């Protein structure tokens, strides 16, 4: 649940063996290529092409065997520290890939912190239209349910506790009160049944496949059963939609004109998404906590902070 801009990773959140043994874990993952569920089967051992840029929490590598290209992701953070379920992610990815909205997963090894998926060439300079984004969200929310549950209140409590324990600057008291009020409002107004949610559907996690033209959702590590309104808010937040754009997204997603309560729910979850982005950064980048707070807290004076 990163909802992030570019920043460095907090070393305290990185697995103790990660930076030292990333190369070893990469070689161990490559060595198990015969266990990868590729279709067609790989013609031989894959070789490393190059690291992929852009990941904030994990390490990603592009590999190739014959004409087939795949992506290896290695954990860069402790999943438990972020409330992640790698098993839920693996199952959700299988369903999403079968529905044509995510890369197909080929291999999963939680002991190595490794995940292998198909690689898709991106159609560059493409941004999703409101209609394409809402269609992708509806397709995600129609996927089969999983056991892993995402509770925003628990996530906030976990992150804020880690900030406090680390001794870094945290949310001021007035913002803690506002956050608590937003969570209370969301519980009172949101009566939507839980669905499978992505929870990090930002531009960096959206890819328009050059071959098919379909929009794919990447990086499902924060997925779980939750409210579709948070997904809508994160997508709106990431795209920087104004009031008119948010109205259009709701209308396209709901397939009806949004009610005042719909708009209010999106406003509440938009503010929660912005707070989640902030506290995630406070945890993962404590050295920049003071400057982050100084830069981003004034943005909360508006209706929905800027991404």
From TrEMBL:
Keywords: Transferase. GO terms for molecular function: transferase activity. Pfam families: APH. Residues 50-254 form the Aminoglycoside phosphotransferase domain. PANTHER family: CELL CYCLE REGULATOR CCRZ, PHOSPHOTRANSFERASE YTMP-RELATED. This is Phosphotransferase.
